[in-house]
Known about the structure:
By secondary structure, this protein is mainly α. It has three domains: about 1-90; about 170-335, no CATH class; about 340-420, no CATH class. The chain has 15 helices and three strands. It has helices at about 5-25, 35-55, 60-90, 100-110, 155-170, 170-190, 195-200, 205-245, 245-255, 270-285, 305-320, 320-335, 340-355, 370-380, 395-420, and strands spanning about 115-120, 125-130, 140-145. Helix 6 crosses helix 11 and helix 9 (about 245-255) packs across helix 14. It is flat. The protein starts with a helix and ends with a helix.
Amino acid sequence: MSELDTTSIKIVRGKLEKLVEQCKTLLTDDFPYADSKAALYALKAQAERLKTQADVIPSTSMATRQQLRLHISYKLESLTYILGIITRSGAMRNNFEIYQPFKLICSKFFEEETHFILSSEWNYTPFTYPMNLQELPDFIIIGLPAPESNNVLIFPAAGHELGHSVWLKRNLSERYSGEIFVEANEFLENNTGIINSLLPPATEGQADLFAKQIKEQFLSDVTASCLRQLEELFCDFIGLRLFGEGYLHAFRYLVAPGDGSQRSTNYPQTKERAKFLQAYGARIGAHIDNYADDFMDGRDRRNLAYEHFVLRAADFVRDKHVEEMYLTATKCTEEAGIVVNEAVSAQEIAMAFKYFENGMPLDSVGSIGHLISAAWRMFLQTDHVKPTKGTQSVMGYVSDLVLKSVEAYDFKKAMKSAQR
Length: 420
């Protein structure tokens, strides 16, 4: 074994030892809920298994040594990133008051025990690690933008992130992929000029071979793009069903107007998403006039002809399934015991708003969706807001009202339980 190999192995082992040490140190800290420590124990065990693998590297062949080092380096990067997320889950800026209510919502969607971690990231896009994360397969990890992590008004974004776990758990990509592939092929057969426009200069025999290869790749990419777009819409509808009007406002707060960058093949146009949310929100009484007008589309990819045609086909197929995504999201939430009643929702939001208007928390509304929707109305109608602290922002004030309402509701439930 070369001196370079020996040095590389020492470095890998040193990194693993530091990772295990960091896990041990963090396990001595206090976390607001047990799932963070459970995740730390799992990561520590994996880091220790990687140390065992590193111990055998010197006795393997050169090719195996290289593969093991690559594998361990990849796992180290992944574990370190997740460790950071878990560490931030204990930060005081997180809204711990809504942790248990949302964990209860998560548990309703899955038969097995659900572990939930609420954290943050220095990125202005919420993220999720659904229940297929190899390192933590039984955990749902949701993070909100760190500058906003104590802002209750954007919490409905967690509903969208939960949707990714539901989509995966129900194998919805597998359910729809075959049908979408067939529809993509039908689109291509009705638009034969697409493949011809993508062919490079070639002889007649080569052109047939190129056309076959391009068609196969094109259909694969269209199917993948369409499935990713449908997953995003499904997650939007899960968020909408869970949080109603609050989700529409949170989505606009985080996304509008859009950054005007070139559109990704994994997402619908931002304005199209907003139009879908506006239309389907109206079905459950969450109607906001001219909602979609506040959004702009990303730039078209016409300068990249292949991606432009992929999106053109994927959008065409996607539009056939939007209604189905809404109905599937509705079915998933109703099977989880979360049924949207437009009349009841309107009454509970109005009741919460009335209390908030008078600077009082409400202990009788069990849905954080209704509370957050009422808080958004308060925030958007600033003449109703009367902060008690001179330096407190309007957003901080209404967020406090929601958190105090959750605490009051939980206390009231605990008292009733104790009296039985």
